[in-house]
Amino acid sequence: xxxxxxxxxxxxxxxxxxxxxxxxxxxxxxxxxxxxxxxxxxxxxxxxxxxxxxxxxxxxxxxxxxxxxxxxxxxxxxxxxxxxxxxxxxxxxxxxxxxxxxxxxxxxxxxxxxxxxxxxxxxxxxxxxx
Length: 130
Hints:
It contains five helices and three strands. By secondary structure, it is an alpha/beta fold. It has helices at residues 20-23, 33-48, 64-68, 77-92, 107-113; strands at 9-11, 52-58, 98-102.
């Protein structure tokens, strides 16, 4: 993140971006204020350095409550994720204008088919939420 190197944008990911497991403890719960403040501080520092932040909303990191209900194979995950995104966008809309919904969406089906993410099903093409 060095402006002298010509960097002018920064895409957050699970290592330093919003972390759903820490931000929201249950479906439709309010966002954790201390975790949100940590992320706002990062965004403010980037902007102060002349760097445009891009928020990645999902980077392979599900909250435990999503995993407990079967992950993305459970249709109830969709409105809960929409609620999470809505809260995060409302909290950051004055500071962020670049958003990435899912990091590497092309890899998600491959990992899901290999059983790498909840619900750890392998080769189940028809189990995705519809």
